[in-house]
Amino acid sequence: MSRSVCIEATSLTKEYRVPVREGGFAASVRSLFKRHYRTITAVQDVSFSIDHGEIVGFLGPNGAGKTTTLKMLTGLLHPTSGSARVLGFEPWRRESAFLRQITLVMGQKNQLIWDIPAMDTFLMNRAIYGIPEREFRRTLDEFTELLDLEGLYDKPVRNLSLGERMKCELVAALLHKPRVLFLDEPTLGLDVTMQSRIRQFIREYNARFESCVLLTSHYMADIASLCKRVIIIHHGRIMFDGALSDLVERTAPFKLLNVALSGPVSPEAAAAFGSVVSLEEGKLVLQAPKDEAPRITARLLSELPVNDLTIEDPPVEDVIDRVFQEGVGRA
Amino acid sequence: MNAVSRLFASYRALFVARWNEMLQYRASVFIWTLWSLAGPVIHLSVWGAIAEANGSVAGWGRGEIAAYFVVQSIVYHFTGAWQAYEFGYLIRTGTLSVRLLKPFDPSHHFVASNVAFKAVNLIWLVPIWAGMFLYYRPALPLSVGRVALFAAALAAGALLMFLWAQVFSMFAFWVVRADALFELTEALGYLFGGGLAPLAFLPPLLSQIAMYLPLYYMIGFPIDVAVGVATVEASLLGIAVSLAWSCALFALYRVLWRAGLKRFGAVGA
């Protein structure tokens, strides 16, 4: 089935001019009379397109340019050069019809009014987006059930736990049923159970409304669980854009063999099968080139006291880390 | 739902949210209100004492001076605008981003906050004002026409002050602590706007300068209308001048807003 393009970025570049000065009293006095500036290129020549219904992971280390790109695509920032279209709109024109169809969830920024119950913010959003009463109630009930939020809407936001607050933030951000979701670290600081609940919610929302999702997260479990495709940005430039499985294939052309041993094995004997990642308390982890994994597995089973054996791809965290360190295809 | 009814519904919801927010920290709101009354009461005491000692000040007796400062406490309340402080904070912390993502001009939040604050405060200000009228016995030329003119001058002054604060808010796009600039204008307003004393008390040159500045139309002018210093013709002309200033400030605010958005770095967001 062919899908239409939802987000299209073409050669987006964003430069900031920031004041700089050395530390110390003399430098601060000098800066009073003459300020020095440096131009920082946060995002350089970034191009990609995302179709309706896609969930794409947008990855990069801190300061790589992820959030700056998201801010341009949501219309918060004007780019220095380049162009972008989201749902056919130029984002930074901030047209009402555009803003009605998007949302940006920032894990470290609140839209809920801090001192009053979340319901007051929901009602405010209902009025701002012009959501009919019946539709508002139906959507709210649905989200309440999906996110297990029963009984939390009448407490001041400041009295909610971080996880409860984040879930309420999601409700506030999605009540108008946006077609495009920009999620910037939506699971930041949450425990594992809460992260999993929010991932499940995003997956169900995407499936239900055919929405387009661009997700940044430092938790690889979010990416592995939700995104078939990832875009990797580093130093403001796109390093990789493709299927997560391709990235793993290209960046880590090896498998991990996890072996549960029923008897003692010396490090020397283990090393004869491949590169030993770890060997302790009856557990051996070997790294083996992909094409040799079946042969080595057969040898392990016949030559070592094996209780159990599994073959896995390396953890996505390791793969991404290698990409940041060494680049795609060279790691 | 058409655009007008959506705007009305949005204002209603914003007002309710801000009202609820104010009531959450009503003790602080009450203290801020008392603080806003301190200036008029202190000035009334000082100028009133001078008038009693000398018979009058620039032809104003104690009753007129009492009228001026009692009305000033009302004018301060209704024309006050302070969003320059909040807007600077929103820019510095990047919180403005959250409001920019909505299909709703962020300035509406400031209008709703402003109105909600003033409405909440009326709960205790009305009895306080009643007490001030009984205690200070101001000499006010009360008539329906005068009250109507005062209400119009007050509304024009509130609009002008709001737009003045809005223009100075916009400087936060360029200057980290733009609220300091706004604070400076508040100090100027104290002298040229009729905060310290009626303009009639100032040297002629200063009062002449004041008449050409918008600051007078935010504070001193509505008071002059209420206490009868401004004739009906002068009141109508003053309201027209006040509205003209508002139009100019609104145009300037929109230009600065558009230019500022292009500069906005959304830092911290």
In short:
The complex is a heterodimer of chains A (331) and B (269). Helices cover 37% and strands 30% of the residues of chain A. The model of chain A has no long low-confidence stretch (mean pLDDT 89).
Description:
The complex is a heterodimer of chains A (331) and B (269). Chain A is of the alpha/beta class and 331 residues long. Chain A has 2 domains: 5-11 and 45-248, Rossmann fold, CATH 3.40.50; 253-312, 2-Layer Sandwich (Alpha-Beta Plaits). Helix content of chain A is 37%, strand content 30%. Chain A has 12 helices and 13 strands. In chain A, the strands form 3 sheets. Chain A has a 6-stranded mixed sheet, sandwiched between helices. Chain A has a 4-stranded antiparallel sheet with strand order 11-12-10-13. Chain B has 269 residues and is mainly alpha-helical. Chain B has one domain. In chain B, helix 1 crosses helix 6 (107-136). The two termini of chain B are 32 Å apart. The interface between A and B is medium-sized, with 35 and 28 residues.
Shape of chain B: globular
Strand content of chain B: under 5%
Work out the count of structural domains of chain A. 2
Oligomer type: heterodimer
Low-confidence stretches of chain A: none
Tally of DSSP helical segments of chain B:
12
| Class by alpha and beta content of chain B | mainly alpha
- Note the beta-strand portion of chain A: 25-35%
Helix content of chain B: over 70%
Give me some keywords for this one.
heterodimer, A: 331 residues, alpha/beta, Rossmann fold, Alpha-Beta Plaits, 2 domains, six-stranded mixed β-sheet, four-stranded antiparallel β-sheet, 12 helices, 30% strand, B: 269 residues, mainly alpha, globular
